[in-house]
Amino acid sequence: MRITIVLEDARHSMDVQPEDKVRDLKDQIEKNLLVQTIDDKRMGKFLEMKFGGAALNDDWVVQDLGLVSGSVLKCATKIVDKPKLNVYLGYNKDTLHIMDDIDPIKTTIGSIRSLLSSTLGIPVSAFNLSVNSRNKKTNNKMSKRELFDRNTMDYYGLEIGSTIILDLWDGWNELILAAISGHENVVSQYLSWDRPVRNFQQRTALYIASHRGYMGLATAMMKRGAKAHEPVGTYP
């Protein structure tokens, strides 16, 4: 079956088979029409294919698309920036993609921690950062290696596009997740009886409430003694 490919306002004929996938069509176009794509750590340049105005998935099969002889597929090259750093958030199993310019040789873990704090609205002292690495003491099994603020990304072998892990301190997930959702009653249930720990928890919840605009939670924490002008402090 012969179809028409429109690329940069030029029309080209191409023979396709019913069992071909969209990925196969793109490979033909890249080879026959000398379209260059890029896939490196910093950016990606890829070929987008549309039929009837809808973008086609690479795994879709020609015979399922409703194509007939003479059908027209429109193609265009798209350029996208790739994340400079990926951060797996252990407390909600999500991944945060950092697009800011990062130089692994110069960027310290401390500056990344500050960036994450301002992005997520969680105090720097409420979480730790680590990276999965192979441990020679355990027959090269993967284990978490803690990242310390004073060191650079390069010190830990982190490159552009690497993934690090953000975990809250043990036992704090429920309280901080409740604060992120603005549930002051739930936050109150998880406050410790130990005064130093409770004070830190309240300041942490107040910090999160201020970042997210939760007046109810902020008011509740200040009534319990948290003061807006006081720093959150270090983990007790």
UniProtKB/TrEMBL annotation:
Transmembrane segments: none annotated. SUPFAM superfamilies: Ankyrin repeat (SSF48403), Ubiquitin-like (SSF54236). InterPro entries: ANKUB1, Ankyrin_rpt-contain_sf, Ubiquitin-like_dom, Ubiquitin-like_domsf. Signal peptide: none annotated. Residues 1-73 form the Ubiquitin-like domain. It comes from the Eukaryota. This is Ubiquitin-like domain-containing protein. It comes from Ciona intestinalis.
